[in-house]
Amino acid sequence: MAINGEAPKTVGAGVVHQMMGSDTMTPDLKYVSPTCSGIQKHEDAIEKQKEAAVMAGARMFEQEKSTQESGRPGASDSRARLPIS
Q1: pLDDT in tens, 44-78
Q2: Quick one: DSSP state of residue 77?
Q3: How much is the pTM?
Q4: Which residues contact 33 (CB under 8 A, 6 or more apart)?
Q5: Which of 5, 13, 27, 84 lies 20 to 30 Å from 47 when distance is taken between CA atoms?
Q6: What does the alpha-carbon distance between residue 4 and residue 27 come to, in Å, rounded to a whole number?
Q7: Contact status, residue 40 vs residue 46, Cβ threshold 8 Å
């Protein structure tokens, strides 16, 4: 929250904020954390994102595995077979 100054456009780790004041106005910048109920909602959302990422990764590995087992070119056993005469 910006007091006596312009609110920052971005926030987060590593972001530098500069606020200019005057003789009659001292700018101040405060971090306002979420309420306890807000923290739980953040944790729930993060957990859902983790679960979605795990499922997406599992689907990628499953697709890769099925492609390799299908005998398509690029699969591990895609050598040309010649008839025995």
Answers
A1: 999 999 999 999 998 888 887 777 665 555 555 55
A2: T
A3: 0.37
A4: 39
A5: 13
A6: 5
A7: no
